[in-house]
Amino acid sequence: MSSLHRVLVLAGPAEIRELAVLNKAALDSGSVLSAVPPFHQVYKQHFDFVWSVARHLGVGPDAMDDVVQESFIVIHSRLHTLERPESLRSWIYGVVRRTASAHHRSRRTRDAAGAAIAVEGELGAPPATPFELTEKNAERELLVNLLAQLDETKREVLVLVELQEMTVPEVAEALEIPVNTAYSRLRTARQAFDAILARHEARQGAR
Known about the structure:
By secondary structure, the protein is mostly helical. The chain has helices at residues 3-10, 13-29, 39-56, 61-78, 88-112, 130-133, 138-148, 152-162, 168-175, 179-206. α2 (13-29) packs antiparallel against α3, α3 packs across α5 (88-112) and α8 (152-162) packs across α10 (179-206).
């Protein structure tokens, strides 16, 4: 059991239920046939995955419906361009990632122009992580704090592999990086997370 999964076990049944949903999406997408599936099938099988990815990318509850809808509009319009059906899930991740990025840029632009007074105080603040959006207890807060100590590139790969249960080749394709780079980031991310967790446990033991 990896250190991250060991911490996740402490996070309670809410995360376990979410992982069950993600596992189902992974199983559904793991048996992709040689032909690209129809959009209605993609929507049904990957809706929870798209929603979870959007959360991971910092989309807030107020914008979640819009970002998910926009993601599926793009998926619907470009599904016919997918040349490798076996890469469907990583391709979908790329679509959601770009859509979420456009959403954040748009929000920052509106904030900078003073168009949304209610969110002016959020200028310059990093997007909330999915765990921050659902943080309700000490165990979840621990997981948030540990992951927050990783730099963004390492954290993204670690979360996609350990929590979203994507394969490293899928992650590499989704992030548009070489597979060797993805493996290297995952290895260093796991080492860094292990070190962070060890320091935390040492502090707890010293109390």
